[in-house]
Amino acid sequence: MSQDLPAASSANGTQPVCPRHPDRVSYVRCQRCDRPACPQCQVPSAVGIHCVDCVRSAEQRRRPTRTVLGA
């Protein structure tokens, strides 16, 4: 999790906005990092919504699938 990244907010600080699209207000938050995610940045998962950044980092950490013969 990247808790060191602050959640983006609008200029007046009242409405949460997507960190990747600051012009879009978003009240949906990623289940992993708790940052707001606009509809374009939301990825549905079994446990809620994840942002594209968390999905990308999880895919990079995933080990390659092995076959029955070990290849």
Automatic annotation (TrEMBL):
<feature type="compositionally biased region" description="Polar residues">
    <location>
        <begin position="1"/>
        <end position="15"/>
    </location>
</feature>
<protein>
    <submittedName>
        <fullName>Rhomboid family protein</fullName>
    </submittedName>
</protein>
<feature type="region of interest" description="Disordered">
    <location>
        <begin position="1"/>
        <end position="22"/>
    </location>
</feature>
